[in-house]
Amino acid sequence: MKEVRVRFAPSPTGPLHIGGVRTALYNYLFAKKNGGKMILRIEDTDQTRFVPGAEDYIVKSLDWCGIKFDESDIVGGEYGPYRQSDRKPLYKQYSDELIEKGFAYYAFDTAEELDKYRAEAEAQKKTFIYNAESRKTLRNSLTISAEEVEKMIADGIPYTVRFKMPENYEVRMHDIIRGDIKVNTNTLDDKVLFKSDGMPTYHLANIVDDHLMKISHVIRGEEWLPSMPLHVLLYQAFGWEAPEFAHLPLLLKPDGNGKLSKRDGDRLGFPVFPLRWVDPKSGEVSSGYRESGYYSEAFINMLALLGWNPGTEQEIFSMEELIEAFSFEHCTKSGARFNVDKTKWFNHEYLLKKDKEVVGEEYLQWLEEEKGIKADKDYVVKVTGLVKDRVNFVKELWDQSFFFFEEPTTYDEVTVKKRWKENSAELMLKAKELILSIEDFSAENIEKVLNEWITSNELGMGLVMNGLRLMLVGAGKGPHIHEILELVGKEEAVKRIDKGVEVLSKV
Q1: What is the pLDDT along the chain (507 residues), one digit of tens a residue?
Q2: Contact predicate 7/40, CB 8 Å
Q3: Is 126 designated active site?
Q4: In which order are the strands placed within the sheet that holds 104-107?
Q5: How far from 419 is each of 359, 391, 392, 485, CA to CA, in Å?
Q6: I need a surface site. Which of 51, 290, 332, 376 has the fewest CB within 10 A?
Q7: What is each CA distance from 60 to 30, 345, 355, 365, in whole angstroms?
Q8: Sheet holding 244-248, edge to edge
């Protein structure tokens, strides 16, 4: 097998969609699995759609995801430059070569003329296509004399270069995922290869760069499958060996009906971009997975399993494990449905895997930044250890642990109605006296003393524990009472019981 060289070639026309991240990921996994190279190439031939900041966003997003490149404009490489706008002089010679060989031609049709043809066809309930049939009657170098063509170019008349699609030719192709494919050229149009602004289109630049950069495998989204016949024909026209192709399945909406879009994320409340994005023109802010509290490892793990499976029941993979397990044999042809709840589940699993010290430090930072609370690190770590199995994100720890940092200001009405009985006030005051008498205020000893007291006095475990929880938390949630008591401390616990009894006795 020849050296594996793959590329991820985004266009800086906006933020990187998670579908693009998955494409980059599959390229990366395949390259590393086969001891190959991963190249980042910026395809900025469409200057009209260029968005300031998009390229930097793409690079930062992929770095956050742990997708590293062996060659790029940043890390260097012997096949650079790796930005198409810096390779502009290259493409004209290849466009000229295709014309000289008879595989392409000059087209002088204006945008207005083409719009007119489309309108006329639409009026007849037809579709105008610039193809082998229509090109015979249009303004191009196939219908105009060579002298006139030369003069028009010399006079600066705008033109495009179009591929001359062969008539009634069967293009035979092979896709690693989809198998053998046949397409008749009579169904295809003459795509523009070189634009009037002096820049190549994706089709030409992509082929030229892949050849010059010795790309062995082109791994890209399903949306590029219709372009595959043209690309194969271009390789044939140049006399070059084509790379192997793999077209990945689409990422579908959660209901499975159509391609996943930003609109779906906005509607259903989940990100479709890896990092937060601020549109430079409108100022519109789009949420990102990083800012929403997702771990990059969980995000990547989730993406990897959207369109691929390991052939086993295993779901949790490190990047190294993904590299080892990955193959196109287990990639699906059909679209992969995005599951919001499953995505949260992945993050929950990764949060559980992390040491409480690590999560505690993250929570400590969150407390200071979001709540203005400066707490002892060891204390926060202990709190985190008690509740982290109940949440999907670090930011959700607050709802499960706020009572470790501040006393209740209200008491949940539903819980009060259900748990606060006629004798509860008297019982809580007795429990307070017991708590004051406990010298060894460790969770283990508190539990022992409380249980013995409840049993010996035949008080009912639920009645005491539910009452104490209401006093300490203000609601019917939280970890074990003895764990709460140890951390908030004797003095604070007594204070909360007194306050709770006072407030609820008036209800």
Answers
A1: 689 999 999 999 999 999 999 999 999 999 999 999 999 999 998 878 889 999 999 999 999 999 999 999 999 999 999 999 999 889 999 999 999 999 999 999 999 999 999 999 999 999 999 999 999 999 999 999 999 999 999 999 999 999 999 999 999 999 999 999 999 999 999 999 999 888 899 999 999 999 999 999 999 999 999 999 999 999 999 999 999 999 999 999 998 889 999 999 999 899 999 999 999 999 999 999 999 999 999 999 999 999 999 999 999 999 999 999 999 999 999 999 999 999 999 999 999 999 999 999 999 999 999 999 999 999 999 999 999 999 999 999 999 999 999 999 999 999 999 999 989 999 999 999 999 999 999 999 999 999 999 999 999 899 999 999 999 999 999 999 999 999 999 999 999 999 999 999 987
A2: yes
A3: no
A4: 104-107, 160-163, 192-194
A5: 33, 25, 29, 19
A6: 376
A7: 21, 25, 26, 22
A8: 179-184, 170-175, 244-248, 217-221
The reply to whether the predicted model has a pTM over 0.90 is yes
Is residue 356 within a helix (H) or strand (E), and if so which, with residue range? helix 356-366
Residue 338 has which token pair? 């995005």
Q: Furthest-apart CA pair in the chain: how many Å?
A: 111
Residues linked to residue 104 through DSSP beta bridges, in sequence order: 163
Q: Among candidates 356, 347, 245, which has minimal Cα distance to 301? A: 347
Number of H-type helices and E-type strands within the chain? 20, 13
Helix (H), strand (E), coil (C) string for 181-220: EEEEHHHCCCCEEECCCCCECHHHHHHHHHHHCCCCEEEE
Sign of the torsion formed by the C-alpha atoms of 395, 398, 399 and 400: positive
Q: Could you tell me the domains of the chain? A: 1-73+249-353 (3.40.50.620), 89-194 (3.90.800.10), 354-404 (1.10.8), 407-507 (1.10.10.350)
496 near 488, Cβ under 8 Å? Answer: yes
Determine the Cα–Cα distance for residues 323 and 28; give it in Å rounded to an integer. 8
Q: CB neighbours of 131 closer than 8 A, spacing ≥ 6?
A: 165, 186, 188, 189, 190
- Which of 33, 68, 92, 262 is catalytic? The answer is 262
Q: Which residues contact 365 (CB under 8 A, 6 or more apart)?
A: none
Nearest partner of 299 among 286, 289, 314, 308, judged by Cα: 289
Indicate the pairing of strand 285-286 with strand 277-278. antiparallel
